[in-house]
Amino acid sequence: MTMFPLLLDPIAFTLGPLTVHWYGITLGLAALAGLLIAVQEGKRFGLSPDFFLDLMLYGVPSSIIAARLYYVAFKWGYYKDHLGEIIQIWNGGIAIYGALIGAFLCGYFYIRAKGFNYLRIVDICVPSLLIGQMIGRWGNFINQEAYGGPVERSFLSDTLHIPTFIVNQMNVNGVYHHPTFLYESLWSLLGLIILFVIRRLKSLRAGELLFTYLIWYSIGRFFIEALRTDSLAFQGPAWLAKLIDALWSPMTTAFEQGYLNPAEGNIRSSQLLALILVIAGIVFIVVRRQFGWAKERYNDPLINHKRAAGVSESDIVIPQQTEAVQEETETTKNDAEKEDHNRPV
């Protein structure tokens, strides 16, 4: 008899008729971690924790709904005959790009209603999105979903040196698979460190942290997505499918693409969207700088544009980091005043 390793139970615990899944707990932890780092960074700009708490309370449901609708739209051939399963998100089946669409749309209306520059607030929040994705992927791990194509156990344990508990969970019906959740989680962790570093650069303009995040995540997603066997796909032109395969081809030295059902399509939607976002992000940064449109910096004072036609001192929040710059400015101002005072009339 073949012995399979002990797998993790997707159900954490039950309380009477209520069943609590690890997937939901993981998403909750992801949202909490994102909230905490946004609140911490927001303090530098004088934003209250309630600002981010309210944003999360609106944003998380919006993200989940949009992520589910995005997934269902690509799987409508199945869900049209299983309408009752559309709401069963605890069994997995949400798309991160859909979640981002929901989060950005909800954030747009919330931030504009509060009177702040949209790009400035999103810049503060994008590390929260990345840490949320990093943690949330472990829900896929517990559910045994979003994995890649088949591999040998030795590849996971001896070549990649992945911990045994992860290797065991990657055994699906006796076949080991690429832990694509782990690849994406580690990619997100590295991206988070990069965002933490570059957001302290004085030259960083408003909006550039957002597009750096989109570029970084999308590069990783483009290459990792092709390893998966459950990609959302559509039927597109042959030239586009060949282009995407050609861009991914350097990976063939170490990996093979996961199976893509021809009935689903010939283009993985996440790969195409990732490619578009990488190009759009680079163009956004270069064009705005080239034409001088990116004047506001990430670390500039944060202004509430809604309070009054004239901006009062209470509407401006100076980041803690710029205190030294303020002192330098005050010194320059005082020197200028002395020069004017001593100037002959």
TrEMBL record:
* Alphabetically ordered keywords of this record: Cell membrane, Membrane, Transferase, Transmembrane, Transmembrane helix
User: What would be an example GO MF term here?
Assistant: phosphatidylglycerol-prolipoprotein diacylglyceryl transferase activity
Query: Which stretches are tagged as biased composition: Basic and acidic residues?
Result: 330-345
- Out of the domains of life, which is the source? Bacteria
Q: Where is this region: Disordered?
A: 318-345
Q: In which pathway does it act?
A: Protein modification; lipoprotein biosynthesis (diacylglyceryl transfer)
InterPro entries of this UniProt entry? Lgt
Localization recorded for this chain is: Cell membrane
Regions crossing the membrane: 20-39, 51-74, 94-111, 118-136, 180-198, 210-227, 269-287
Q: Which Pfam families match?
A: LGT (PF01790)
Which EC numbers characterise this protein's activity in its record?
2.5.1.145
Q: Where does a 1,2-diacyl-sn-glycero-3-phospho-(1'-sn-glycerol) bind?
A: R137
Q: How does it sit in the membrane?
A: Multi-pass membrane protein
Q: Which family does it belong to?
A: Belongs to the Lgt family.
Task performed by this protein: Catalyzes the transfer of the diacylglyceryl group from phosphatidylglycerol to the sulfhydryl group of the N-terminal cysteine of a prolipoprotein, the first step in the formation of mature lipoproteins.
Q: Quote the protein name from its UniProt record.
A: Phosphatidylglycerol--prolipoprotein diacylglyceryl transferase
Q: Tell me the lineage of the source organism.
A: Bacteria, Bacillati, Bacillota, Bacilli, Bacillales
